[in-house]
Backbone:
């Protein structure tokens, strides 16, 4: 009887160990699969960002950064484009930490935000309300962006960065995401990493 009990105990031990090995092996295999899948997703995201940053934005206007002044002034500035994409500007920047302004903001302060790497989304009375709301939601969750109305601009919706500008057809235009990916703290930024908070706050 003792031999039978020992044999039964050995069988139970072997079964338990085998089950544990199988469970651990399964967990290791699943963990490896998850890690590989995450790495593949991260690689795909990185490649997508790199493609967006290296592909020209269709219809984009570009100004030579060397010709855009960067002096701090407290006097009015006359810009050659509207909205402006660079030039001399006020010492204080416009808050651009996903700030959506209900009323026009001073150009001289917004230009300073562009110098810090912000993307400025502007819209006129011709813009569709639904597009404005969708863009406002996108800006609100994106650091280094700001949005405000500019009644006198030529296009209904325009996106500006330092030395860069594009007019888009609507919030669903793929160039919106591309412009954000390429120019929010992008390579055109004269002062990357500079603050987008503790500046001038407008009406929201």
Residues:
């Amino acid at each position: 009887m003792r031999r039978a009990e020992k044999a039964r105990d050995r069988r139970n031990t072997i079964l338990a160990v085998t089950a544990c090995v199988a469970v651990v092996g399964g967990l290791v295999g699943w963990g490896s699969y998850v890690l590989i899948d995450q790495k593949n997703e991260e690689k795909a995201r990185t490649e997508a960002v790199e493609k967006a940053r290296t592909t020209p934005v269709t219809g984009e206007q570009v100004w030579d950064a060397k010709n855009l002044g960067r002096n701090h002034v407290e006097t009015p500035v006359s810009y050659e484009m509207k909205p402006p994409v660079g030039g001399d500007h006020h010492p204080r920047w416009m808050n651009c930490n996903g700030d959506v302004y209900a009323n026009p903001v001073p150009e001289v302060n917004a230009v300073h935000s562009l110098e810090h790497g912000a993307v400025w989304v502007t819209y006129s009375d011709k813009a569709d309300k639904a597009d404005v709301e969708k863009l406002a939601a996108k800006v609100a969750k994106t650091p280094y962006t700001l949005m405000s109305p500019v009644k006198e601009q030529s296009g209904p919706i325009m996106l500006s960065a330092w030395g860069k500008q594009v007019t888009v057809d609507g919030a669903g235009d793929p160039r919106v995401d591309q412009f954000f990916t390429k120019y929010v703290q992008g390579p055109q930024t004269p002062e990357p990493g500079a603050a987008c908070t503790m500046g001038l706050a407008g009406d929201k």
